[in-house]
Amino acid sequence: MSQKLLALVEQSSLREDVPQFNVGDTVDVHTRILEGDKERIQIFTGTVIAKSGSGTRAMFTVRRIVAGEGVERKFPLHSPKIAKVEVKRSGVVRRAKLYFLRDRVGKAVRLREKRDNAPQA
User: Fold this and answer.
1) Global pTM?
2) Which among 90, 37, 45 has a CA at the least distance from the CA of 65?
3) Span 71-76, mean pLDDT?
């Protein structure tokens, strides 16, 4: 009974326009930032290294290199602060979590790109 009630309450908080992306994809996360009474959009570009949770508790972690230093940021998938998530490229991965990328630097961080096998007309 309580699980059904929780699911109903959770249903109202879920986003309708959830983007489809996977671990290993390079994404642009457009985040709404409030500065005083103004609102602006800030873009965080990086590789998705982890996805976790379900329902309203779904999170994803994006990693990028800034000035030679690794920066990771966790975003709630259904947050109203997330304006949109754009997938720039898809990577070929064989793991659910890419934490091994934390130990790599330079060109070793790159992932192979997933290509469409659809025939070109």
Assistant:
1) 0.83
2) 45
3) 94
